[in-house]
Amino acid sequence: MTEHPTAQWTAHQISEAFPWEAAPRYLIRDRDSVYGPPFQTRLKGMGIEEVLTAPRSPWQNPFAERVIGSVRRECLDQVIVLDERHLLRLLGDYFEHNHRWRCHRSLAMDCPEPRPVQGPECGVVIEVAEAGGLYRHYQRRAA
Question: What residues have CB less than 8 Å from 39, skipping those under 6 apart?
């Protein structure tokens, strides 16, 4: 996170996000200046093809819009953010909950990090509060 991103900073971030073997084939992006020549050169070197959205058309990137909308509805609309540190903690808690406990239809109602099935022999079902009670999940604990 930075207050004043530049094309050089963004190019470094894309390298950190995707090691050479794990880079995606395409990157959908808008026409912001943070995607300037240093960033474009880095993408070409990584073998990533850019797909530009039309000017002033954020709806053309439904994946980003879906993530942003989910974060707002499920996390940020529920609290008052006090400062940057608080925001980072909230987002970390949200994404941890989202990846470990929240059911996703596209994953056959499982999580991105699959969970083992816990039968009755594993104990009673208890509620576990996360992020100061903002989220809850349920799991079995031995008595």
Answer: 7, 10, 11, 14
